[in-house]
Amino acid sequence: xxxxxxxxxxxxxxxxxxxxxxxxxxxxxxxxxxxxxxxxxxxxxxxxxxxxxxxxxxxxxxxxxxxxxxxxxxxxxxxxxxxxxxxxxxxxxxxxxxxxxxxxxxxxxxxxxxxxxxxxxxxxxxxxxxxxxxxxxxxxxxxxxxxxxxx
Length: 151
Known about the structure:
Elements: H1 3-17, H2 22-35, E1 56-64, E2 67-75, H3 82-95, H4 100-105, H5 110-113, H6 122-150
Antiparallel strand pairs: 1-2
Helix pairs in contact: 2-3, 3-6
């Protein structure tokens, strides 16, 4: 694991460890959601929808100089998408602008270890797991493509 990845994980560990009241975690997630600028509506395409999310979440990958940058947005429809959006922003705080190998070096269990899953509804928990799985799949495919290009 690189120093950049370790620093990001340590920052999130410290933030979650600082929460005194269980509601502090959700306030933090909601603040992340409110601070997110979203993405250009032209990027919203069915092929970028995260299946299994409580709301309609789009995750658009872009690879530059070997690293991934992800654009993310959530459309709620009849539900309030702020928690889903905040969870997406948290994932981006970990994975954005990392190489495929760095992305794959992060154990998805990290989010459970910091207590993110405690109090999370099953549908949001499944949606977040699907988001992380999709990010990791993009990284795995990129590594395979890189290997194929070396042949």
